[in-house]
Design a protein that fits this description.
single chain, two-stranded antiparallel ribbon
Length: about 180
C-alpha cells in the first residue's frame, strides 16, 4: 500500500525566514524620526521582505509583525506595542502594510513574474496603504479633513518611500538567489 502523507504547509526553514522577516520589520520600525506619522524604515523592510521571501511568506511575515505588536510586544515605531497602537491614529498605515503584501502576492501569483510586475504591485500596494492609512487617520482625527491628513501624512513621505522601495527592491533582488 502506498503511503500518502500530507506535505507540511510550511517547511521549518520557511518559518525561520518568516520570523526573521517579522524581526527585520520590527528593527526597521525602531529606526525612526518622530513626526505626525513617524518617518521609519518599516516600509523598506516590508518591500525587502516581500522581494526576498516572495508574496506568500513575505505577507505572512508582515502579519506576524502586526500580530506581535497587537499583543503588546513593542515592535512598532517608538518601541510601542499593544492593540491600542494598531487601532490608533497611525494604525491604518500599519494595516496598510498588509495591503502591500496582499497586492504583491496576488499580482505575482496571477501575472507573469517580472521586474515590472513586482514594481507595479509595490506601487499599487503603497497607494492603497496611503489611502487606507489616511482615511483611517482622518476618520479618527475629526479636526482634519481627508485632504489635510493627506498633506500631513502622505505628501512628506512620497519621495522617501519611493527611495526605500527602490533600495529594498535592488538589494532584495541581489539577495533573493541566496535564499533557499
Amino acid at each position: 500500500m502506498e503511503q500518502t502523507a500530507n506535505k507540511p504547509k510550511f517547511r521549518t526553514v520557511e518559518l525561520a525566514y518568516i520570523a526573521l522577516g517579522a524581526a527585520l520589520i520590527a528593527v526597521c520600525a525602531w529606526i525612526t524620526i518622530p513626526f505626525t506619522v513617524p518617518f521609519t524604515m518599516q516600509l523598506f523592510a516590508v518591500f525587502f521582505v516581500l522581494t526576498v521571501l516572495g508574496g506568500r511568506n513575505g505577507t505572512i511575515a508582515i502579519a506576524v509583525y502586526l500580530l506581535l505588536g497587537s499583543i503588546g510586544i513593542p515592535v512598532f515605531s517608538g518601541f510601542k506595542g499593544g492593540f491600542g497602537v494598531l487601532i490608533g491614529m497611525t494604525g491604518g498605515y500599519l494595516v496598510g502594510m498588509l495591503l502591500i503584501g496582499l497586492v504583491y502576492w496576488l499580482m505575482t501569483k496571477l501575472l507573469k513574474p517580472s521586474v515590472w510586475t513586482e514594481l507595479i504591485a509595490f506601487a499599487i500596494g503603497l497607494l492603497l496603504c496611503y489611502a487606507f492609512g489616511t482615511l483611517w487617520f482622518s476618520t479618527l482625527n475629526g479636526e482634519k479633513s481627508f485632504y489635510a491628513s493627506l498633506a500631513v501624512c502622505v505628501v512628506p513621505f512620497i519621495l522617501p518611500d519611493i527611495l526605500k522601495l527602490a533600495l529594498a527592491y535592488f538589494v532584495g533582488r541581489k539577495l533573493r538567489p541566496l535564499i533557499p
